[in-house]
Amino acid sequence: MLAEWGRIGCVGFGGPPAHIALLRQLCVERRRWIADRDFEDALAACNLLPGPASTQMAIYCGWRVRGPRGALVGGLAFIVPGLLLILGLAAIFLAAAPPTWIVGAGAGAGAAVAAVALQAGSGLLPASWRRSGARVRWALYLVAGIAAAATVGPWVVLVLLACGGSELVARTLEDGRAPAIAPLAALLVGGGKVLSLAWVALKVGALSYGGGFVIIPLMQSDAVDRHHWLTDGQFLDAVALGQVTPGPVTHTVAVVGYAAAGVGGALLAAAVAFAPSFVFILLGAARFDRLRADRRARAFLDGAGPAAIGAIVGSTIPLAEALSETWQYLVLAAAAVLLLALRRSVVTTLLAAGATGVVVAVAGGPIPG
């Protein structure tokens, strides 16, 4: 297990779709550890949970093979290779005086991030629209997510919870029952860099719905505007690093942690962000069938899901606003064409954008300070 899950953690470029395909190939097709229907049901259940679905599937597959110990070994083997790589890259990109070509590479790759976010959000729209039963409410949740990501930054998580709760109430009333819903309380953590970092990481791991890119609006305002751990350009670098390294996009939170408190902060942020996924699977894997059949869970996700997609799309606005040089906008436009029109891969697009930044830097062009 350590070898197989570790291999996926090392070669898992391309985000959740690639991770799911590699896990399916290993556990269903090659080793036949898990039946095809069970794998699909587990994937559907993981999509009902907050946090990184591909990480949860890696943990779940380990649980199916060797129980709780398998879940821990499989999950860590999937997470750790990319985490170590992104820590090394964070040390290089966030150094006090990085080489000029490194700054250029970051500026180039970062310029393409808004296009990557737009592609991620737009790719989720069709399936979410088809699943929606109430199209007007779906559109309202989507618009709320877009507006929240573009304006209120760190409070996006409250909008996601509010949209999920609203749909749960609406479904309950449509069924003719009085809503029995526990009050939703926002956990506000303040005072101290460590607690603030832990809160940002907890939002990423326990309160994010809709795929890896929803972590951008959950982190950007906190990391850049509120706590000033990163500049706008460095945050774009962090998101780009999370995309070009193997493993889950959630690794981006480790770069934020590194900027806030060095290696210790990176490890703390990663531990807090990934811990909920282990807890969800270890405590709930045996109840996945009931979770998928639970109408309240489905209703909540039907509200939070469109809002999360909207937040991903809306995050393109502050990401684009973070650019400062004319050539970066040209890179952004080219990246949009590559991703949305020509259907090129995210990793290829970011590497091409980074190479463009290196050329600009070496040629003496303007690069963000």
Characterise the protein shown here.
It is a single chain. By secondary structure, the chain is mainly alpha-helical. It folds into two domains: 80 residues, no CATH class; 281 residues, no CATH class. It is 76% helix and 0% strand. It has 17 helices and no strands. The longest helix is centred in the N-terminal third of the chain and has 41 residues. The radius of gyration is 20 Å and the shape is globular. About 4% of the residues have low confidence.
**How many distinct helices?**
17
What's the oligomerization state? single chain
* Unreliable sequence segments: 178-191
Q: What fraction of the residues are assigned to beta strands by DSSP?
A: under 5%
Which percent bin holds the helix content? over 70%
> How would you sum up the major sheet?
none
Number of DSSP strand runs:
0
Features:
mainly alpha; 17 helices; 2 domains; 76% helix; 369 residues; single chain
What secondary-structure arrangement, pairings included, does this model have?
Blueprint lengths: L1 H10 L4 H15 L5 H11 L6 H41 L6 H12 L1 H19 L3 H17 L4 H19 L18 H14 L8 H12 L5 H13 L7 H33 L3 H6 L1 H20 L1 H6 L4 H16 L4 H17 L7
Give a brief rundown of this model.
This protein is mainly α and 369 residues long. It is built from 17 helices and no strands.
